[in-house]
């Protein structure tokens, strides 16, 4: 019969080994629940993975160059990966517990699900992400260059130049102005002379009436 102390000494080792096996199985079967927090908007994305959450986040960063259409990738591009924080939420013992922990994380943070967010395009390897990104940038630069060339080729609207007056035209215009000034001056002089004559006639009429009245008084 084995001594009691041997049994008690082996039990912790057995429990530790069992826990290690369970943890290893959890990792192999996507049993890790993690969160990625947008530090700008405070939105929390919740996902699961079989490797470490940091490695999973690295995969997301590399997959950004693949052009996968998803709001998560758009946020990474808009806010910058440096503004996101990755944290482990919990480890599940089985898939049922995984679902419960995932739902708990979603409810706790009012989270957005990362389940189904791809990191590859079919058979495309993540290792090709960097070349794809450079290709996309190059194509974008060429497109912008073509746009600039097309814009420069568009004919600018013709600017109608005003015909500058010649010296002869200026002399004619100056002559007309002088003639108009002389005419206005003559009209003013004529009007002034007319007023003087009218005033003289009026004065003569007054004197004539006075003289007529004086003659009448003398006759009496």
- Portion in strands: 5-15%
Q: How is the main sheet built?
A: 4 strands, mixed
Mean model confidence by pLDDT: 75
Instruction: Write down the domain tally.
Output: 2
Total count of helical runs of at least 4 residues: 6
Can you give the helix content as a percent range? Answer: 55-70%
- Which descriptor suits the 3D outline? rod-shaped
Instruction: Return the CATH class of the largest domain.
Output: Alpha Beta
Biggest β-sheet: strands ordered side by side in the sheet: 3-1-2-4
CATH topology of the largest domain: GIY-YIG endonuclease
The CATH fourth-level homologous superfamily of the largest domain:
GIY-YIG endonuclease
Q: Rg, please?
A: 52 Å
Give the termini separation.
187 Å
Residue ranges: pLDDT <50 for 5 or more in a row?
1-16, 18-28, 124-130
The number of strands is 4
CATH architectural arrangement of the largest domain: 3-Layer(aba) Sandwich
Series of secondary-structure elements, N-terminal to C-terminal = HEEHHEHEHH
Structural category is alpha+beta
Summary keywords:
single chain, 220 residues, alpha+beta, GIY-YIG endonuclease, 2 domains, 4-stranded mixed β-sheet, 6 helices, 4 strands, 63% helix, 10% strand, disordered N terminus, GIY-YIG domain-containing protein
